[in-house]
From TrEMBL:
Residues 7-20 have a biased composition (Basic and acidic residues). Keywords: ATP-binding, Cytoplasm, Nucleotide-binding. Residues 1-20 are annotated as: Disordered. This is PhoH-like protein. One of its GO terms (molecular function) is ATP binding.
Length: 340
């Protein structure tokens, strides 16, 4: 039976300026994934309709898309990307669909998902537990920088994947043997809370600050491997103060929440760089939690000094790149609009 969607808010989505209309039919050869492709009660197709302002009807393995020609082209690319993602064994949830919709403004979407002409591999990061593909246009730039530069500054709001993608790339390189160690660090600065009076030894006191790094690790590697590699020293998770006096060679080093470093701490950290290493510095310049009187953020100071230096890349995310629930992007945008 043919499926046709009717939106109650049709007038709201009607373009204000004339567009050429188009009708495109997409046929999918592999029918076993069509249930997951369309989503329960066709929720994935509804999501594409509402976001792109098109009409979609499905009959068997054929999908008809109608609407403004540019929106129809984007919807077609999104459906192809979703289908390819399912064929490669990856999950397809509302967040993944939203990210493909966001990336459909880029002309390289199909190349990202299926691989560029000539057999070049698509942009992705493979870990033991999952394969990560870019979920926003800026993540495409970020993933490229992670394999082409020695030091990468990743700037932007929460939810854009700055730390998660960096940890995934670090895990992939550790598994492949291109680096011997993975070092994850962040400053032990409270974001409005006071944790210093908690009981326990040093590790128990600082672990709350480092928990997001553990979470990203466990999402990319089986827990027993994470624990074994931590015990062997292949993976080290420590506050930035523990980096002083060391040279970090043959290592993938990530500094998270870098906006909460002082300029002196940042200089100390960056000068730990050793042979065959890569450093990623992640932070949101608008969310500085340093106590009053400390001075400027080390992240802002470092970017001003080092942007444009050979071997150093700066990738800037914004609210459009938020890949968590769509409401997170709207919350970030509202706060940034209010606070400037």
């Amino acid at each position: 039976m043919a499926r046709k969607l009717h939106r109650a808010d049709e007038a709201h989505h009607r373009p204000e300026t004339p567009h050429r209309r188009a009708r495109v039919e997409v046929e999918f050869d592999e029918q076993t994934v069509l249930g997951a492709l369309f989503g329960q009660f066709d929720t994935n197709l509804v999501q594409i309709e509402n976001r792109l302002g098109v009409y979609i009807s499905a009959r068997g393995n054929r999908v008809l898309i109608e609407g403004p020609d540019d929106a129809v082209a984007r919807a077609r690319d999104v459906l192809k990307g979703m289908h390819q993602r399912l064929l490669s064994g990856q999950e397809l949830d509302a967040g993944a669909v939203e990210s493909l919709i966001a990336m459909s403004v880029e002309p390289t979407l199909e190349g990202i998902i299926t691989g560029a002409p000539g057999g070049a591999p698509p942009i992705m990061i493979r870990t033991r537990k999952k394969t990560i593909i870019p979920r926003s246009p800026t993540q495409i730039e970020y993933m490229k920088a992670l394999i082409s530069h020695d030091v990468i500054f990743a700037l932007g709001p929460a939810g854009t994947g700055k730390t998660y993608v960096a940890v995934a790339q670090a895990v992939a390189q550790l598994i492949s043997g291109s680096v011997q160690r993975l070092i994850l660090s962040r400053p032990a600065v409270e974001a409005g809370e006071r944790l210093g009076f908690l009981p326990g030894d040093m590790k128990e006191k600082v672990d709350p600050y480092l928990r997001p790094l553990y979470d990203a690790l466990y999402d990319c590697m089986p827990p027993e491997q994470v624990e074994r590699r931590i015990a062997s020293g292949e993976i080290e998770i420590a506050p930035i103060a523990f980096m002083r006096g060391r040279t970090l060679a043959d290592a993938f080093v990530i500094l998270d929440e870098a906006q909460n470093t002082t300029p002196a701490q940042m200089k100390m950290f960056l000068t730990r760089f050793g042979q065959n290493s890569r450093m990623v510095v992640c932070g949101d310049p608008k969310q500085v939690d340093l106590p009053g009187g400390v001075g400027a953020s080390g992240l802002n100071d470092a970017v001003q000094r080092l942007e444009g230096v050979d071997g150093i890349a700066t990738v800037r995310f914004n609210t459009a790149d938020v890949v968590r629930h769509p409401i997170v992007g709207r919350i970030v945008e509202a706060y940034e609009g209010k606070d400037g």
